[in-house]
Amino acid sequence: MTLPELYKVYPGEVRRLAPFGCFVSIVGFEKDGLLHISQLGNTRVEKVEDVAAVGDRFFVKVTSLGDDPENPKISLSIKTINQSTGVDSDPTNIVAHGDDKGKKDSGRRDRPPIELGAVYNVICTQCGAKGHFAKNCRSLGEKYDLLPEDDEAEATPQLSAIDRAFRAAEKEKKRAARRLEKQAHKMHERTAAASAFSMEAYMAQAATALNDTKKHKKEHKHKKDKKSKKSKHKKDHKKDHKKKKSKSKRADDDDGSSSSDDSAGSPNDRSPKRARHDHR
Hints:
Strand order of the largest sheet: 1-2-3-5-4
Shape: rod-shaped
Structural class: alpha+beta
Helix content: 40-55%
Largest sheet: 5 strands, mixed, barrel
Low-confidence stretches: 151-156
Number of strands: 5
Number of helices: 3
Distance between the termini: 152 Å
């Protein structure tokens, strides 16, 4: 978790009020800080509602981050901050150190508050009110006179320093969101390209496997056909051989029968003993 820098001034907005102070959201950080009631002004403040309200914007100074680094507690102050410009009138942090020391010594003894029974007969040069000096003025921001009604349409509103700071912070937040969106878009494009490449590689691998299967089946079928043709040729050859053999046997049998008939029918072909017997 990122924490604000100690003794640095930041723009903030009041999120919640409490009897002991108000919680302020510091621009650019997630953790809220506590603006104690004693840090709302240079004079005593009876109620927080008299000075601050939910939604008010202040320039706040980080005076403490607590003693526990794992659970930091951010303490804020607006006592030395000019709310018109955001300039810190205590750059050496003497007031902040004195307040911190006063907090540590507050438990030792209780001192009653000093009450003045008289009112200063002075006029504040900052807000124009009576009864206090300009250095003790609680006025937050510069005072402007009302413009005449005729000039209301021509008047151009001027942004205060706190509004300008918030507007700059909002612009920076939008720019950061756009950068994150662009990075997410690029990451999505890379993921889509990688998935498309992997899909193309998978399809190519599947096509290669299918072609190999088809080729294997074709070769197996060719071998099978060749083997069947060869066996058929052998069968035909055996059949022809048997036919030829039977035909030649019949031919031999026919030749033998015909030769025997011829020898029995012709007298010239008789043996000498038979001829002699016949002669007798």
